[in-house]
Design a protein that fits this description.
The chain has twelve helices and two strands. The protein is mainly α. A two-stranded antiparallel sheet has the order 1-2.
């Protein structure tokens, strides 16, 4: 945000412009991680980093949230650019992050194989630059370029869409344990995705890393359910075409629902 906009909003008393909260009564003065306002171990010549575990910060979160909304309304274009940039960073493989780069280099060969084979990583030039915050991932990326994971993007969309399908079908089909588990996982993926894109700018892929395994497992479950349901439907159609009675499932009620996790079971057909 430009200095002129900041000055204007401050003159209108819409924001305070204060980036550092006042002191407070410390409940744990003997615990450095909670009592110190700045992180230790900073580099010489660089400004100290704020300690986000400092006990005086939570009481200031309400003000910061309110002022963030004021700025978003005052600068909708800038806000949209930052949100798009956050989404571009979000899609970057999680291990391509500045602070994890030293560890990543120790397993560079295995990591590269995982990114290429599982994450389907591709190098690209984002249509909208993530700005200075993009350096957090760009500096950790081989070749100092931007990379994105096709698997992460499409798997996330598939898992969220699967949860929506289950919600739409809930009036026609009971929520079995398998469907409830998938719905809960889908809601978790949706929440983390939205929060990591809208509420952060710079470390979006690091936040997404927490649900990467869950996203992949749910995607495999959804694909397997669709494939098995289609096979069952094809078998029943083949039996009907040959003039025989459709094969009845011998599985229990709960087991029968697993292959139909997202696809409704075919209804009875006329012989």
């Amino acid at each position: 945000m430009s200095a002129r906009t900041v000055a204007k909003l401050r003159a209108e008393h819409k924001i305070s412009g204060r980036v550092f909260p006042d002191g407070c009564h410390l409940h744990h003065p003997g615990v450095p991680a909670l009592a110190k306002p700045f992180k230790s171990g900073g580099k010489p010549g660089e400004p100290p980093l704020l300690n986000w575990n400092w006990e005086c910060l939570p009481k200031d979160f309400g003000r910061l949230g309110h002022e963030a909304l004021v700025v978003a309304r005052a600068e909708p274009h800038l806000t949209a650019v930052h949100v798009i940039g956050s989404a571009e960073i979000w899609a970057t493989p999680a291990e391509l992050y500045t602070e994890s780069a030293p560890n990543q280099r120790k397993i560079a060969g295995l990591d590269k194989l995982y990114r290429r084979v599982v994450l389907l990583e591709v190098k690209w030039n984002p249509p909208i630059s993530p700005g200075s915050k993009g350096a957090l991932v760009q500096l950790a990326t081989p070749g100092l370029g931007y990379h994105t994971s096709l698997t992460v993007v499409f798997a996330t969309l598939a898992v969220i869409a699967g949860g929506i399908v289950i919600l739409v079908q809930r009036r026609r089909r009971r929520l079995s344990p398998a469907r409830v588990a998938f719905l809960f996982g889908s809601a978790t993926v949706a929440f983390v995705t939205v929060a990591s894109i809208l509420l952060e700018h710079g470390e979006n892929n690091r936040f997404r890393f927490l649900i990467e395994a869950l996203t992949l497992v749910l995607t495999v479950a959804a694909v397997a359910a669709v494939v098995r349901a289609r096979r069952t439907r094809d078998d029943q159609q083949g039996s009907t075409t040959r003039g025989s009675r459709p094969r009845a499932s011998t599985a229990g009620a709960e087991d029968a629902d697993v292959p139909e996790l997202l696809v409704p079971a075919p209804g009875p057909r006329e012989p």
